[in-house]
Amino acid sequence: MKPTKILVTGANGQIGRVLTEKLREVHGKESVLATDIHKLEGDHEPYQFLDILNPQRLREILADHDITQIYHLAAILSANGEWNPMKTWNVNLNALLTVFEAAREFEIQKMFFPSTIAVFGNTTPRLNTAQDVPLLPNTVYGISKATGELWCNYYHQRYGLDVRSLRYPGIIGWQSLPGGGTTDYAVEIYHEALKHGEYKCFLAKDTRLPMMYMEDAINATISLMEAPMDKIHLRYGYNLSAMSFTPEEIAEEIKKHIPDFKITYEPDYRQAIASSWTESIDDSKARDDWGWKPKYDLESMTNDMLLHLKPLYS
Ligand code: NAD
Ligand code: AKB
Q1: CATH number at residue 136
Q2: Ligand 2 centroid vs 246 CA: distance in angstroms?
Q3: DSSP character at residue 139
Q4: Are 147 and 44 part of one and the same domain?
Q5: Using a 6 Å cutoff on CB, does residue 281 contact ligand 1?
Q6: Which of 59, 108, 125, 146 sits at 20 to 30 Å (Cα–Cα) from 72?
Q7: Are 92 and 206 within one domain?
Q8: Of the candidates 53, 118, 54, 58, which has an alpha carbon nearest to the alpha carbon of residue 90?
Q9: What is the CATH number of the domain that holds 190?
């Protein structure tokens, strides 16, 4: 068995930065290669520039670094994705196929593909959304991730690739800024509350969405990837849930710490995207199969976010 060497694509993103750190804690710094089209700030070596649209460079990196596992995070998210649908499809889906083919060629032992609640659409039941439901996503991001899930299933069934996947809700963390999604408001709101005491929200006050604190998302990812093979019964995205709230509810929670905090609402094109997603998720398959359990709710997440962000703005 070759020693574990992990490649992270999109490592400079909101999740990539934190996940790469955690993987380095678990496997050792030199065993986790961060790659992105943007250089990470600070000491994030080992790092390599990798445009995931370049299959030749991907293969060179897999060979040069003896990679055995891939966490393929690089993507264009829901809101930004709508500005250039063909580019989004290319990065999110065509590049995934390139990674799959390279994974086969280089006999990659394990691969992680992050899916999302954006796979759901207007025909999906909105409350306590079950694992297997109609998917009719209406963003190019959602279409690319729903299709990506099918390819995960295919590469596992056809070629035996050990690919594992989660449908992340909106992820909220203090360590990094979000990269152009519809749930970004739930990170921005903490920064603006501390910086300016007010926030103009781009979603309506009663838009309820599934969300999760970064620490839980990272723990879920590591637990899924470390679970024994016989515990993994789904090769497309496992539903994953922690909390659901509206902009009005998160603002009320922040007001417990910053009583003068003010929120106003000016919904834009992202409202239609958010309204097409579901409000809450049934993640019993993840709980039953590999023991998933979240730690944070809205109250404990808000305490921790403000604790970590306050020093930045005081
Ligand atoms: P992000 O937008 O913050 O980061 C994505 C990274 O991909 C960026 O650093 C970007 O530079 C990189 N990238 C873009 N195009 C690239 C290319 N051609 N080659 C190489 N790198 C490229 O995204 P994130 O929030 O960190 O999300 C990571 C993954 O998790 C994505 O696949 C996303 O779909 C998924 N996800 C995220 C959330 C969330 O709330 N953050 C929720 C559900 C799913
Ligand atoms: C987005 O809003 O696009 C992401 C996601 C839920 O996939 N945060």
Answers
A1: 3.40.50.720
A2: 15
A3: S
A4: yes
A5: no
A6: 125
A7: no
A8: 53
A9: 3.90.25
